[in-house]
Amino acid sequence: MSATAAVSDLGTRARLAVAGAAALFLSAGALALTGSTDVLLAVLALLFEKSTLAAALRLSVPIAFAALGGIFAEKSGVINIGLEGLLIVSAFGGVYVTSITGSVWLGLLGGVAVSTLLALLFAIVCIEFRADQIIAGLAIWLIALGLAPFASTVVFGSTNASAGTTFPSIGRLLANSGLPVVSTAGVAALDALAGVPFFGALFEASPMVYLMFVAVGASWWTLNRTSFGRWVHASGENPKALDTAGVRVSRVRYAAVLLSGVLAGVGGAALSLSLGQFVGNGPTMVNGKGFIAIVTYLLGNYNPVGALLSTLLFAGLDALQLSLQGQNVLAIPRPLVRTIPYVSVIVVLALFGKTRLPEAAGEHYESGEE
Amino acid sequence: MRRRQMTDDDAGAGGPLDDGDAGSSAPSVRDRAFDALDRLVAASATERLLISGSALLLSIAIGFLLILAAGRMTSCGSAAYSLLGVGFCYDPFLVYDSLFLGAFGDFLANPLNGQFATTVSETTVLVFTGIAVAVAFKAGVFNIGGQGQLVFGALASALVVYGVSGAVSGLVGTLVLVSVGLATGAFVGGIWGAIPGALKAYADANEVITTIMLNFVATSFALYLASGPFKDPESFANQTRTLPEFALFPQPLFPGRTDASLLALALAITVAVGIAYLLRGTSFGYDVRTSGIQPEAAEYGGVDAARTVVASMALSGALAGLGGAVYVFTIAGNFQTGVPDYGFDGITVSILAGNNPVAAIAAALLFGVLKSGSIVVDVGTDVPPELVGVLRGLIVLFVAMPEFFRMIGERVDVRDRLGGSRDAVATDGGEEA
């Protein structure tokens, strides 16, 4: 057991290393095309700026949460390609509830609730009615793509909506906590640490960034150290054995898909509430993050930590392209710079496309009892 | 030899592949097998029609509730509709009336009215994107990249036709330009479709993800071209130069620029029928279908599965690109950023049609009506036209769960008439039609 885990971990690490190298190589190649070392240095300097790390962490949150959700669902045997849709509805749900209640935390709960409901619909359709998981997942995305702007227009009169507030910084959260030592010394320490170049970004991030790290740890623990984690694994690899052991496969799958709804819901609400608004025109503000999440956990070999690392890789590229757009370092036009994350996803998939899906993923399992 | 044998029972889609026994023995056995298959296909087609019809009705019913719910969430001066003493801001009947009947305009008084023209032209583009998705589905590939392929096809044909339009004129000019434009759209769309095909065939990269990513890339790239190098200098919008009138698709019936060309529709229908023949009656179609249903068996039967995947994705992309060219020629008159979601609607069209190219014509008409009707809804009611987007998703969802309707069917005991075949639309080929 531990031996295989170690091997797969090693595999994950190797894949990530190669993926990182490939990403660097690609960016370097793109820069070489522009033909100037000054530009290369400028980009490298940007890469190690505090604001880039801050942006990478912020951009990681929705992708990482969706990826964690995807891991649970897919490991249990239900490929949840509807993560994008879950992110979209929770991004709107979060803004909607926040605008009514005035509390981002209730908004977060609202987003999670909406996303979980949609995940429940997906679960029923896939598990009860044996729908093709890919098509049903796609339907979830399409429904969300229509429903969120529809609801936004009904409630706010426009496909874009404002929540009126955003998440407080971790410093303000501590300052307002009212705890005797923490509210003063803690804030001072955070201020000091935030001054550190580059890594300072770790100490002045949104609370959702810390929640992301907690969620990654908790997911790893749940998957590897609890009996629920073992059931999820068995439900995807060998549902018959799980059934024989007296655990209802469909129940495990329901739990895993609902969990993916909860996690993606946190990610979607965090996305919109960290900006304080929902953008619903075109592909909405989610803009493919749910699909990128799928690639990150495939690249991370269904390991939450691996998924987080590959998320940071993609989010880092995205952060870099945002800084590049903002600072006009490159002569490349903005719409082209914007394609960097998507192109890198394709390159990564082409290099590491051969992921081993869980044995029974995508298949309906019917218990022999009925 | 082996291939020939398999052809005999390949139509048994879903049935056991008993390796050509039926084919090699007496013709009577073969005939009986074909009879059985014919019955199976017929039963399955009826069943499909039932499933698609029920999915549509169920989606409309849920949309009805959604309109009522939305009508409670918004505020208005006086209730537009009331049910059981509760007032609602939106009237679902009025909405559906606008959506479905509005799309035909005042059809009885003037069949060539502008609204119906819109319906016809939307339908035409949707036929192309619908069969594009269907062709890929048949090969077991899920092409979600129709949107990107259409965008590039539209952009390329708009640019090339503009470039050539100076050199020709008159009726001959129209013929030349329309053919050049269609060929360009198909070619560029085909290449953009072949990329994810090759990535799937040779690098095992999941086409669902790569095609979606390529949509984002295509949209951004098209934005760059239409806002930069090829921008119409006389316009504020991100669009290419408008094509001269004679370069557009001829519109002999619909007067003036009412945006509909029955010739384009005829072309779409011809292509759909041609694709149906290609899939049913040619060895390429046979390769495509067997790779979709049973990739291992196809390989065993001598089909180069990798090449088939690339070829069918290229064909799929070419059809979507053709749709893009037709969009430019009949609707837009140039390339503009913010192309409507024809690619995604194509997925719904194909799924609703059970991946049958000819049935896709009917499904495209339905979605042409919905798209055109959503404009009427937008103008005539306060209900956001995004409603159609929700309906689209619901229809896909319900068609994906035939088991739901079978369970209901069992209750009302029509199951015996339907036969027991269980092959619904699925990503592994979605066989049968």
Automatic annotation (TrEMBL), chain A:
Where is it predominantly found? membrane
Recorded GO molecular functions are: transmembrane transporter activity
Keyword tags:
Cell membrane, Membrane, Transmembrane, Transmembrane helix
Report the transmembrane regions from the record.
56-73, 78-98, 104-127, 134-157, 207-223, 254-279, 291-315
| Keyword Transmembrane helix annotated | yes
**Cellular localization per UniProt:** Cell membrane
The annotated topology with respect to the bilayer is: Multi-pass membrane protein
Q: Which domain of life is it from?
A: Archaea
Q: What is the name of the protein in this document? A: Nucleoside ABC transporter membrane protein
Lineage of the species this protein comes from? Archaea, Methanobacteriati, Methanobacteriota, Stenosarchaea group, Halobacteria
TrEMBL record, chain B:
A GO cellular component entry from the record:
plasma membrane
Give the GO molecular function terms.
transmembrane transporter activity
Q: Where are the transmembrane segments?
A: 49-69, 116-137, 149-168, 174-195, 207-226, 260-279, 358-377
Keyword Magnesium annotated: no
List keywords of the entry alphabetically: Cell membrane, Membrane, Transmembrane, Transmembrane helix
Region annotated Disordered sits at 1-27
- The identity of this protein, by name, is Nucleoside ABC transporter membrane protein
